[in-house]
Predict the structure.
Amino acid sequence: MHEMSIALSIIDAVTAKAEEEKAGKVTGIELEVGRISGVQSESLRFCLPVAAKNTVAEGADLAIRETEPAGKCEECGRRFPMDGFFARCEFCGSLDISIVSGRELLIKSITLE
Ligand SMILES: [Zn+2]
């Protein structure tokens, strides 16, 4: 499963950070998942506790926030919400759009003990 390998790499990063901070336990993990990142937050919610088993992050509270996709028009510079990968500028009709958010998968914060 795609999400399981992502969950494992998140837990890797989290446990590395805990080690660096000499923390004995990770009690909370806060993630930000873009709605068009290709990662299902529901699957992550299921996979993360499994990936965290027998690590310092076992039993940590998970907070997953989904971020809405947004695009920026390269013609007129305005930003607007997007509902998929393909969008047209709402203001000038340009198709030259960059995705500025919605594809991210970020560890926003971790709580250490
Ligand atoms: Zn525009």
Summary: The pocket of zinc ion is lined by residues 73, 75-76, 78, 89, 91-92, 94 (CB under 6 Å). The helical segments are 2-20, 41-51. The longest strand covers residues 26-34.
